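Fig. S4 source data, part A: sequence.
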Amino acid sequence: MIGRIVRSVDFERVLSAPTRARSTHFAVHYVEGVPGLPGKPSVHKLSAELSTSQSPGDSKAVDDIVLEPIADKAGVWVGAVVPKRHAKRSVTRSLLKRQIRAAMIRQIQQLTGLADGLWVVRLRSPFATKEFPSAASSALRDIARGELDILLADAIRRTKRA
């Protein structure tokens, strides 16, 4: 199963872990586990009674009730961090995020042994705008793809050793 990390708490947890591998422009972070549950934890159990029935008055708000955990299954959870300070244009940020997700999917399809857990790839330095004047050039896409493939292969190798 491949999922996307969407909660900031999960990003903070993964980014606080040591870097598994880094290249000129990217860094990979990895933590075993699954993303946290959405919403606030609920102390009360859900009952099968209708909500219109008489209740003692200690009912919980609908927003505070967690029905089913969606992240209870092991799998690969992917996140991408591309800050504005390194990629000013949204076109470039979107291109890099798509390349990160595609690189992760390629690693999974090649059966290279991508461990279950939370993986975050972060852009750590900008690409030179003089070399890539277009925000979404094919040259930028090709360079990012090649660098990400090498970086993820290195991160997987280091994760297996640890």
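Fig. S4 source data, part B ends here. The CA atoms of residues 21 and 155 lie 5 Å apart.
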